[in-house]
Write a structure and sequence with these properties.
The protein has about 120 residues and is α+β, with helices and mostly antiparallel strands. It is about 30% helix and about 30% strand. It has 5 helices and 5 strands; from the N terminus they run E-H-E-E-E-H-H-H-H-E. It has a 5-stranded mixed sheet with strand order 1-3-4-5-2. The longest helix has 11 residues.
């Protein structure tokens, strides 16, 4: 039996990714393994928001899987689960435009999410 209580995490998302989450077509969120995400676990809630707006949407974390880099993450999770509207190579370029090499070196997290009704 676990002693941990599910937590709520607040994370910003760009509009294009937020819309995919809301549509239910983006089921894997990609993040760098920052210290503040080290304890993210199944059962936690993420409140995604678009920075500078009041728009937000809550999801439940179903699974968190660590990968050494973004390429391994996309290969392991399947690009269509991360962003069904772009190719693997486009996704890799987009993710690396957000996170420079020194951030990617921290490790990559695949966070499987499910919309909360």
């Amino acid at each position: 039996m676990s002693n941990t209580t599910p937590r709520v995490h607040e994370l910003n998302l760009y509009r294009q990714y937020f819309d995919l989450v809301v549509a239910g077509t983006k089921i894997i969120e990609v993040r760098v393994k920052y210290a503040h995400l080290a304890h993210l676990a199944a059962g936690d809630t993420i409140r995604f928001r678009i920075k500078g707006t009041d728009e937000n949407r809550e999801v439940t974390v179903e699974r968190v899987t660590e990968y050494p880099n973004f390429e391994a993450l996309l290969d392991g999770e399947g690009p269509s689960n991360v962003n069904p509207t772009t190719t693997r190579n486009e996704q890799l370029a987009n993710i690396r435009a957000i996170y420079p090499p020194e951030k990617e070196a921290l490790g990559a997290l695949a966070i499987q999410i499910r919309l909360i009704s």
